[in-house]
Predict the structure.
Amino acid sequence: FFPLFPSYPYVYVYGTKRVGKTKLLTIIMLLAFNAVLGADVSTSSIYRTIQDALSTLCLDEEEKLDRGGERADALIRILRAGYKRGGKVPRTEGEKRRYVVWYRVYSPKIFANIRGIEDILADRTIPFLMMRAKGPKGDREVKMDDPIWPELRTCLALIALRHFKEVREIYEQIRETPLVALAALVALTPEETKVFSTLTQRERELW
């Protein structure tokens, strides 16, 4: 449904080793729209993947998002601009004759690491701390060749095609409704309403 919205928050998954970050990204890759999963993916590949297919990016082991470096800086530029519809980033192309190409970078993105992310990028994400599973459930592997995955992707695509108008109408109604009125609609307690009414514009935009 993400093309319906003017912005689409990123999901940031963090936690220590062996908490299932890669497993979660694998499941999302198997279900999401034109999804790709990779670790240390080149920025040129990211530009073209989004431009050509509006792909859902699942970026695993992105441990340098809190530090500098040429690749990290280029990736952060993509991520800073890519949560809003219409977001574009320039890139210099060509060998003999150099020219600038503007790539669209708006698409769903989820990234996972242990180290952390820089503040401006964090302001565009919904973070999830993962904990290690106990018992045999944590040892289950994702069977990527299971025929259930393409079946589920087809079902999800049909839901989007059948209900996109309804989702857009509901979203527009929510956007135009004051926070206090929204709190009443979902029957929040007075204390919950007090907290809800203090949401910043960025928080409301993301959620």
